[in-house]
Amino acid sequence: MMMELIPCLPDEIARECLIRVPYRGFSTASAVCRGWKEEIESLEFQKQRKVSGFTRPIVVLTQADSIGASAGAAKNPFTPSYRLSIYEPATETWAKLPLVPGFSDGFPLFCQFAGVGRKLVIIGGWNPATWEVSKAVFIYDFVSATWHRGADMPGSPRSFFSCASDSNRMVFVAGGHDEQKNALRSAMVYDVAKDEWVPIPDMALQRDECKGIFRGGKFHVIGGYCTDMQGRFEKSAEAFDVATWQWDQVQDNMLDEGTCPRTCVAGDGGNFYRCRSGQVALLEEGGSWSAVAELPPDVRVGPSLVTWQEKLMVLGSATHGGRHMAYVLDLQHYTWTKLEVSEEYTGHVQAGCCLEV
C-alpha cells in the first residue's frame, strides 16, 4: 500500500502544498521522508510549480570576492578570488552558493556555466592556484543544495569557449582555443540527465572567445576570431539547429567590425541585445543594431548582462577597478531601476546566467 504524501490528505492536495515550498526549503523538505524526496525531485513537480506560477528566476553570477580581496592581496595581488553569487529578483535578495569542491580558495577562473532545469552546470576554467586548464564539470543541484562531479569535457583542454543551455537538458559547447592557442571549430553537447558528452558537427569557422546563446531551438555562436587573427574579432555568427543536427549558413554581419561579443544576450521574446557605445542596443530584423536605452554612467565599464522575463540586468562600474553596481532595464518600457547592492556583492562580475527554480 502506498503511503500518502501527507496523512489524511489526498495526494493532489498534498502536492498543492509542496509546490508552494520555496526552493531554499527543498533540501529540508526532501529529508522529511522518501515520498517527499521523490516528489520534489520529479520533473512533474517542477512542471506543476511552473504552471501554477510558483517557480522564480534566480540570477547566478561569477563574481570577485570584494570582501576577501584585501586578505588575499599579499598572496597573489593579480588574481582575485571568485565565487558564485545569486540574486533573487522576486525578493530582491543576494546570497552566495557553497564553494565548488576542490576550490576552497576561489573558483575556476574563466569557466563557463549554464542553468539546466533546477541545476547549474559549470564547465572548464583555470585553476586559480596553478593556472592549469580544467576539463572538469561540476553540477549544483538546487533541490539537494549540493555539488557533484559530472563527466569531464572530452578531448584536449580548451579555454574561452562558448557555452549555452536549452534550459531543460542539454549544454552546448563550441570554439575556444587549445593549449597551443589554436582557435577551434569543434563543438559538443553535454546531456545532463545521462551525464554524457556527444560530439556535434564542426562550425564553419574557428572561433576563439566567442559567445554562446540558445534561442529558438538553436545554439548561436557569435563572434570570436581565428588563430591567425588573434584578438581581431569576427563580425559573423553561426547557429546549430537542434532539430536538423546541422549548422545553418554563416551570418556574415551580426556584429560591428572588431566587436567583442561578451555582452550579447537574448531576451525571453527572442530578441538579441548587447551593450554598444554606452547604450543598450537591440538587433532589428534587418540585421542592424538600434539603441533602446542609455546605460547608467556607473555601469558603463566592463558591463555584464543577464536577462529574464522581459528584464535585463546590467552589472558594471563607473571606472576600471571600481565597485560593480547593478541596474535592471524593463524591456517593455525601457526604464531603469537601480538595485540595492551591499559591499559584499560589488566585486567584478565575469559572467552570469538565469535559472527558473
TrEMBL record:
Coiled coil start-end: none
Protein name: F-box domain-containing protein
Organism: Protea cynaroides
An individual GO BP term: regulation of phenylpropanoid metabolic process
Domain F-box: 6-45
InterPro entries, alphabetized: F-box-like_dom_sf (IPR036047), F-box_dom (IPR001810), Kelch-typ_b-propeller (IPR015915), Kelch_1 (IPR006652), KMD1-4 (IPR044595)
Domain of life according to the entry: Eukaryota
Cross-referenced PANTHER family: OS02G0208700 PROTEIN
